[in-house]
Amino acid sequence: MRWMMFFIVGFFLANSPDATAAHVGLACGSCHRQGGSSSDPASRESRASGCVGCHQGRERIFDHAMGQRAGEKRFVQRSYGRLDSDFWDKNCTSCHLKGCLDCHGERGISKPSVATCQRCHNGYYTGWDYSGRAPREDNMRYQRGVVVNGATFLKMLPDVHYSAGMTCGACHSMDSLTKGKKSSKGCYDCHTPDQNVLEHRIPAHLQRLECYACHSAWAPQEYGTFFLRFRDQRLKEDFDLTPGPSPEYLRSAYLKRQDAPPLGINAAGRVSPIRPMFISYYTDIMRARNSGPENTLLAAEWRAYFPHTVQRGTVTCEGCHDNPTRFLLEPEARRIYDLRKDGMGLESFWLQNGQRVSNGSFMDGARYLRLSSKSPAYTKAYLEKWKNFLNRVENSSRP
Amino acid sequence: MLIHTVRHDNHHILFLLLFCTLTLLSGCHRGTKQSSCVICHKGIEFASKTHGDCVSCHGGKPLEEGKEKSHQGVFGIANPEYIGRWENGCAPCHKYQFERMKSNLMYTAAGMIRNIQLTWEGENGNSYTSHGEKQFAADGKPFSPKPVAELDNLSGELFRKFCARCHVGAETSGVYAASHASGCAACHFPWNDTTTYEGNDKTMKGKAGHSASHTMTPLPDTQVCARCHNRSGRIAFSYQGLYDGNNGLVPTRGGEAGPVMVSGARNLTHITPDVHFAAGMECIDCHTSRDVMGDGFAYRNMYLQTEIACEDCHGGAVEVPRYREITRENDEALRESRSYKQPVSYGMRMIQTAKGRNYSNVFYKDDTIWLQGKRSSKMHRSKVITGTPEHTIIGHGRLECYACHSRTSVQCYGCHTRYDKGKAGMDFIKKVETPGAFSESEDYRALYPFPLALNQRGRISPVTPGCQTFVTVAEENGSLSKSEYVTKFNGSQQLRFAPFYSHNSGKKALACTECHGNPAFLGFGQNIVEGNSITGTLLCERSDSKPLDGFLTMNNGKVNAYSAITRENSRPLSGLEVKRTLAVNLCLPCHSTARDPIYRKGINHRALDDVLHRRLLSGE
Fold it and tell me: Is-above-0.90 flag for pTM?
């Protein structure tokens, strides 16, 4: 048995691609100092006692977002938790740090690859989009194609940084995560806005916009997230939806999109992509069948965020300056989805009324009117932009 | 006429049984012996004032007693070959309609069959219809298409096993909200969602497989059309403001999937309906009987059979609608309007369809075009747009009205069709299960924005995937002989879009900047613009460079089309047309409305360099 253990450990270490060498030369006891041979020296419970001897202070990662998930817990508390106090335990516990090896144990002890991060950062959560993946619809009819991390996806244009071979760690260093920061690098750490680009010469753009307000090519957006509770499993029969982590629940959505995301104001006061997170509805199927409430709107919250779908290109000027819907100021004449008829408790997903940005705010109507008014400066720049584009479009076609 | 289905041994052969009725009031006395029909079917409704005699429609032996004896010879039950359509029950009196229906696309399905052929194996030189009956082509010459049962390839099988459920020549049963009779009764009797009789005949009350009442509906309502026109283009849904989008089955209704459920376990949510629907108009208020039942000639596609156009009532850019006075007693409008609350009469000036025939409910009176709701008799004033500045824009002469006036256009992206040879599937034409079953999955649906391209008339029209078929064939042992194969169209492997009118039109047109400022409308899919390239962001699984939701790319100023637009003479916009369309953006910031006079002179882009423009643009 003991030899078997040595063999396993040896194999584990020998397969570590990068961080290996350092660990191969170590005596077993350097890591396995406590609790005997079968203890997990990298566990969260022991605060990574076997690792922090060398990697001092790294255990603090357990105190921050990935370890605590405080924001998500608070959201559940103020939404689904009001109707099911165990909602979190039933639906949300598959992604939280259990120890260092969650990320560093992929193939031996290693630095995490993009795929490692995406074991948790997938689906509607930022990270999958980096590789060009958007969540598919929840009905089984749409569950097709390649499966990664147990989920299918729509193939989208991947982030330029991903295409260039950069891993998540390039911007999200261990140092930054240990300190509870989201990232170690911002756009400006590597990039300087090129003044030859017309949009960069517009001062308001650089002063008031996050780079990724324009350079996020697309973003998954889920409009109306439904959790349907089945106390009786037999009632699931008519709901051909993708099974989730809890047998008691099925999740679905009213509408999903993955085009250029709406814009709002983030905590830093800058214009940023925002997306529903979440416009939450709850139906207890059995109660609803006994004339109880259903489709209860528990939250209508948006979050300012950074979709990891960066491209050099952007939408056209009209995409923002002639598009009130993008700022949740949808004119009635352009309304497509009639939520009132469906009893959704909101007039439109693209109207600010009754909704809020949990880490920022919506753009106010007066400010949108200013940005959509065609000032001489706007017109001049707009014409330059289109002229510059059109001068380089060929009249030819390929049959 | 009551219609009764019986499920035979293999659970698939359905026959219509036609029951006898009502004789006491209708004069069916034969000597002293009374008809036995109403002994069992007491209380059944009259089919109509003119359809009082049960035997002339239903056959049977009304003087016999008891079900077994009296039902002998009833059309359907006595003759297993009789498929309950119309040959015996309706055709003897309605020969004109019967002969037209035999060439009608809703019966022949010739268009669907041909389109499937084009998508899969290509045409093989033969024409096929559901039943292969003799027809007359549009040029009047007789021709004999083959029955689709003889189309012995995947195209034929796909049609027979998937599409043939919705054709007027066959009954559809057991499908929620989509079941109907075959033949005339499919449209002219009221079918409810569960095909359950709810009339006054206690013998039949509550039984499934029958129309809801025995009272005929000479004028079918919108729900009748929606029983079939709810897939593919889904026009009956879009028209009513319903969308079977992502099949999310929410929001729930009473704890069931919702909010509105239809066939195939699909849920519908609400969108803004078509402006005509909102005004109270039904399908038949625009569509003539010749649109719906055919005009006696066989057409290859529905767009050739359809005889109406928006311009008929609203006028074109330069031509106003045309009318013709009723001067003859055999004018179709007189006959067709007999069931309207206000039939038309001699001397009325009837508006003409695009094929130059009279509408039976649209007329010119007091300098106004009026449309009478055929069922409602509600009068609708039709606004004529001829000569208005918005509709005389140079360059817009090639636009279909619904290029700008469609609010949405349903788009189903990625149709992944799997053919399992190891499974059996029901052949709805041969009416037997045969080896081979089809199943489908898909990628994504969208309503807006929607792409535009040239249609078969050379006009700019919305187009929708039609189809983006990816074929997987599983052999009997489970191995895949084809996997996500893109079929050939016009000789090369490519996906296809089809010109399409979504029937979700709005009074207010799209804004200029929507089409001119968003390349998605030109066929680039959801996109970003970089330098002189337009890059799609939703990609086809089979290619890293081709958008799934478009058919054009622009790389370094060069426009490439990589998907076909089906139908003769159809095509995506050329590089020159793309450039011209986008060049309008140079005018739009200042000349922002369609009424602006510059758009009726033809755009002169050099004007930007004249003194006036230079001064304006320099902000002086």
Answer: yes
